[in-house]
Amino acid sequence: MKEGRLNFHRAFGVYGLYAEGEKLLVIQKNGGPYINRYDLPGGSLEDYESLTDAMKREFLEETGLEIEIVEKLGVVDFMLSSDWRDDTQVHHVCVYFLVKKIGGQLTRPEQFEGQDSLGTAWVTEDEVSVENASPLVLKAFDWLGRGELDVEEGLLQDWKVKR
């Protein structure tokens, strides 16, 4: 680690946008740098897992819903400071998918090691802010409003995640 530099963590994951009307389905985060915030259903890939397989698995694990991928929307990255893990600088690379429900029902996720969702909620854009939502959710509402994922605005150099 360079002198004066914070700890560094790079995360790569897949995330699903599932909306009904003006409401977006989110999870209530129980771990990681977005703890105690709304976040999108999704997460990291397992070994030998494709992006779409990971998206389907993560969505089912965190929400109880079986999904179909409608469209890959794009990739956005966020660089932010966090008090998670001793002032860690987080570089989060996110692949966004538009998804639709094809089965299942919303359920509280099974709690196992690595499960960081406490359950789901439906939120509107007016109900989310920098104080209660991850940057992934805020970017999702940008896409829902404009139909375009702005990949250039994802770098949040001075955004501090608070527990």
Structural key phrases:
single chain, 163 residues, alpha+beta, Nucleoside Triphosphate Pyrophosphohydrolase, five-stranded mixed sheet, four-stranded antiparallel sheet, 2 helices, 9 strands, globular
Describe, in plain words, how this protein is organized in 3D:
With 163 residues, the chain is α+β, with helices and mostly antiparallel strands. The chain has one domain (7-104, 113-158): Nucleoside Triphosphate Pyrophosphohydrolase, CATH 3.90.79. 15% of the residues lie in helices and 42% in strands. It has 2 helices and 9 strands; from the N terminus they run βββββαβββαβ. It has helices at 51-63, 135-146, and strands at residues 7-17, 19-20, 23-29, 38-39, 42-43, 65-82, 88-104, 117-123, 160-161. A 5-stranded mixed beta sheet has the order 5-1-7-6-9. Strands 2, 3, 4 and 8 form a 4-stranded antiparallel beta sheet that branches. Strand 2 (19-20) and strand 3 form a beta hairpin. The longest helix is centred in the middle third of the chain and has 13 residues, at 51-63. It is globular. The chain starts with 6 loop residues before the first strand and ends with a strand. The model has no long low-confidence stretch (mean pLDDT 85).
